[in-house]
């Protein structure tokens, strides 16, 4: 493994500090060298699913990164969209796109100091290999108004291993209308060992 930012390094993240370092170095080239080069379609899948469920704004994009999911939401006429990420550098790239009403740094594992409460929340690509586990759902729930939709993508390979099923069961009556839908992470232009990876779109409402 090299020291250059890439998908293998992202999959190997273990701590919030690891995430800050990786995405600081990746912010300027992420869209070109990863999203475009790998035909990364997951943000579009998350935004489509949110729209199909009837989700609307204001919506919080958690793990907004460079703004790929926010752009997909805006393309569907859903807004306003606020975004949060642990990486200030990734958010600066997102800011240049003119998509978001507010952007703020935050760590969903320690809670979010959000500027609003939202009709819904989405997260694409943040819940992957364990560096953000199912406890991150608590901050999303706290940011959403009752009956608001939450749609998060979770790498399908790691869904069971990281305890998402148990977490969702433990939430009990705090959520409703739970569903899981498997989707491709990458489109037909993807190559390499992760080209066939899938994610589960976990959707539920705050009760």
Instruction: Specify the number of helices.
Output: 8
What sequence of helices (H) and strands (E) makes up the elements?
HHHHEHEHEEHEHEE
CATH hierarchy class name: Alpha Beta
> How widely separated are the two ends?
44 Å
Using the CA coordinates, give the radius of gyration.
16 Å
> Which percent range describes the beta-strand content?
25-35%
| Biggest sheet architecture | 7 strands, mixed
Total domain units = 1
CATH architecture annotation: 3-Layer(aba) Sandwich
CATH 4th-level superfamily: Vaccinia Virus protein VP39
Description:
With 207 residues, this protein is an alpha/beta fold. It contains eight helices and seven strands; from the N terminus they run ααααβαβαββαβαββ. Strands 3-2-1-4-5-7-6 form a seven-stranded mixed sheet. Helix 4 (42-52) crosses helix 5 (68-75). The termini are far apart.
How is the topology of this model organized?
Layout: H1 7-11, H2 16-26, H3 30-36, H4 42-52, E1 59-62, H5 68-75, E2 81-85, H6 88-95, E3 103-105, E4 118-127, H7 137-143, E5 144-155, H8 164-171, E6 175-184, E7 198-206
Parallel strand pairs: 1-2, 1-4, 2-3, 4-5
Antiparallel strand pairs: 5-7, 6-7
Short structural description:
It is built from eight helices and seven strands; from the N terminus they run ααααβαβαββαβαββ.
Can you tag this structure with a few keywords?
alpha/beta; 207 residues; single chain; globular; Rossmann fold
